[in-house]
Amino acid sequence: MDTIPANDATECAWCGRRIREGSAISVGSYGICVTCLGDRFGHPIENVSTLSDAEADQLPFGFTRLDSEGRVIAYNTQESALSGLPREGVLGKNFFRTIAPCTCVDEFEGTLQTMMASGQAQRRQIEFLFKFKHRTTMVEIAMSTDPRRGYATLLVRKAASEEIAV
Ligand SMILES: [Zn+2]
Fold first, then answer.
1. CA 19 – ligand 1 centroid, Å
2. Alpha-carbon span 63 to 25, nearest angstrom
């Protein structure tokens, strides 16, 4: 077991709020608070790095987990619905090169690489014009990293009702 400082409690990957006030347990990763999860969840998710595929499919937004090489190792049904890509066609492929080449820019891949290279669990939120298969959509993305496990997590939801025809 790791020794963990008391001020290092889990925070929400979306809003940054502490998930459990006064918690002394850190998992070196981010969770998701009840407010950001919406009505279907009565409890917070304490660690996005340990979410199972079945749990990820319950989330009200897109969820993608990448390994340290940028390969997709989890991809939920909401992300499939957004991207138009079936999970089976995405798993194991490089997210930046093969799945979503629009993310191969400093603002996205560069930011995530910097976060991973820091060796610390970090969180960033960006708005990004995402070129999905069938449409281009402005989305909000919460990036979080878990360097101990070598994971990066991308949470994705539509920014406004801003959809641009292609
Ligand atoms: Zn939150």
1. 8
2. 24
Q: How far apart are the CA of 11 and the centre of ligand 1, in A?
A: 8
33-50 burial: b if 16+ Cβ within 10 Å, else e: beebbeeebeebbbbbbe
Ligand 1 center from residue 44 Cα (angstroms):
9
- pTM summary value: 0.88
| Residue 110 lies in domain | 53-164
Beta bridge partners of 75: 64
Domain annotation covers residue 139: yes
pLDDT tens-place values along the chain, 166 residues long? 444 444 456 899 999 998 875 555 556 789 999 999 988 888 899 899 999 999 999 999 999 999 999 999 999 999 999 999 999 999 999 999 999 999 999 999 999 999 999 998 999 999 999 998 888 999 999 999 998 899 999 999 999 755 554 4
Q: Examine residue 153 and state whether it is found in any structural domain, yes or no.
A: yes
Q: Find the 63 Cα to ligand 1 centroid distance in Å.
A: 15
From ligand 1's centre to the CA of 28, what distance in Å?
17
